[in-house]
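Record Phosphoribosylglycinamide formyltransferase, 205 aa.
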Amino acid sequence: MLTVAVLISGGGSNLRALLEAAADPGFPARVIVVGADRPADGLAHAEAYGIPSFSVPFREFATREEWGDELAAQLRAWRPDLVVLSGLMRLLPAAVVDAWSPRIINTHPAYLPEFPGAHGVRDALAAGATETGASVIVVDSGVDTGPILAQERVAVLPGDDEATLHDRIKPVERRLLIDVVRRIATGELDLAAPAPTAHPTVTEG
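=>
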């Protein structure tokens, strides 16, 4: 059984979807702890499912490195097989990434390498793109530059704004994340040598 730690910053919609999937006895992974870098609403999902949680508030540390050291210590205490970033709005210090990669993954609301960074949906609209997407990647020392584990296109519809487009991307992100975690757990996907897995279907709504 693959054990998973999930790190969040906000509402935790991806976390909720993963917890729902993991509640199925046939799902080959279990979330064992949820961590946050601030008082995050998504911690309520952990409580609802009886999952332990911890908080390492970024603002309580003098430097990002000190914050990262404490975060790493919390993760080491739980010894998860996999770390999932679920809307963690904070770049991890190199020491944390080095300690866990390639066993640390993230979702991104764009078809990488298109539109990396914190505003992937906004940037796609600003570029006049007719389609964007969702990706699941291994976290490395760059910004959304790690190996791609899965991705799928999502159409940009006439009249879309950042909110409506993001609302259509989010379910694709959740589905891809759950599938990637399942494939890692079953050994179908080897993080030591990840291969890009593109899904050519374009989701319109």
